[in-house]
Write a structure and sequence with these properties.
Number of helices: 13
Order of helices and strands: EHEEEHHHHHEHEHHHHEHEEEEEEEH
Shape: globular
Distance between the termini: 24 Å
Helix content: 25-40%
Radius of gyration: 19 Å
Structural class: alpha+beta
Strand order of the largest sheet: 1-3-2-13-12-11-10-9-8
């Protein structure tokens, strides 16, 4: 384990070190200043390339608030109305859902409607066309179901239609943190390879057959296939719901910028109730989950997460290449000074 721990945060470092993941990083900022910056392990399965502070790793749904922020920047500029129908900006869009409903996972479009292979992840227009032409599973605004794979295309195409820039370029130019979609060639060498903590990890995280979770994550094929998600094609595709490649510090600085008012707030409650994908009661904000303890953010399949704790002025990000559960993050959170 290498890095920095400020006085008063030793227990956080101890929690991070309890069970090394063979490649992970933790950054905690307090009022925008680092109090914990730690890395451990390697970027590769062969354990030849040590994890560095600028290592990028696929953080799955931890990236959803990033594409939500792209839309909220346009809202703040008066270019998008949260209560306008998506078709106001995306004229071929058939579902009568508002921008607000899309951002809060209540648009009724949690599944890509046309069966597609993994190659579809590299075809932005194809998947957006599928979504534009389909009908919602439920009346928009009535049911929450995390839009596991569709969220980024719904929000990202809105951004593209309004601003003109592809969503990956918009994020790179408007946010500028150490993360991104559709990585440039120069960033590929910084990427960590994902691996499973157990051989049966994909089956344990597949959901019941024909359940909303199973349907949401299985099409297009490959989002939990290591041969897909460790490929150059995936890293250079734009799949904003699940393929943000980020350093822990990049994500933490994103949340710190929201806390200090540099970026619009996402932590505005929109829906509270059962989420059919998550399988439990959830409060959705504008692209983030709001917790009863006042924290808010988003986790990603496999154990990565980014979140803010406004009461303590903390922005926290934990990223890992070893796909498992959230036990490490739970230990870290419990060790944070109260």
């Amino acid at each position: 384990m290498d890095g920095f721990i400020a006085p008063g945060f030793a227990a956080v470092g101890e929690a991070f070190a309890i069970e090394p993941r063979g490649g992970s990083a933790l950054t905690v900022l307090r009022d925008g200043e680092p109090v914990v910056e730690l890395v451990e392990g390697w970027r590769d399965e062969a354990r030849t390339a040590p994890w560095q502070p600028n290592t990028l790793v696929n953080v799955y749904s931890t990236g959803k608030p990033v594409i939500a922020m792209a839309a909220m920047i346009l809202v703040a500029r008066g270019l998008v109305d949260l209560d306008a129908l998506m078709s106001t900006y995306w004229t071929s869009f058939q579902t009568p859902a508002s921008v607000r409903q899309v951002l809060s996972h209540t648009a009724g479009l949690p599944f890509f409607p046309v069966p597609r292979t993994a190659s579809a992840f590299s075809d932005w227009d194809l998947l957006c066309g599928d979504l534009a032409a389909t009908s919602p599973e439920w009346e928009p605004g009535t049911v929450a179901a995390e839009h596991a794979l569709t969220y980024g295309h719904l929000v990202g195409e809105l951004v593209r239609r309004v601003d003109g820039r592809p969503p990956a370029r918009f994020v790179a130019e408007e946010l500028g943190f150490d993360f991104g979609f559709a990585l440039a060639d120069a960033d590929l060498a910084r990427c960590a390879d994902l691996e499973f903590d157990r051989p049966d990890w994909p089956q344990r995280n597949a959901g019941e057959p024909d359940s909303p979770k199973s349907r949401a994550i299985s099409n297009p094929e490959g989002a939990r296939d290591l041969s897909v998600v460790n490929s150059t094609a995936w890293r250079q595709a734009t799949v904003p719901a699940v393929n943000l490649h980020a350093s822990a510090t990049g994500i933490a600085r994103f949340y710190a910028a929201i806390l200090d008012g540099s970026l619009p707030s996402l932590a505005v409650p929109q829906f509270t109730g059962p989420d059919l994908f998550i399988g439990e009661e959830t409060t959705w904000g504008l692209g983030v989950q709001l917790e009863p303890d006042g924290t808010w953010g988003h986790g990603g399949l496999g154990g990565s997460a980014g979140y803010a704790d406004p009461a303590r002025g903390l922005a926290i990000a934990y990223v890992t290449r070893r796909l498992g559960d959230f036990a490490a993050l739970d230990r870290i959170d419990a060790a944070l000074p109260r």
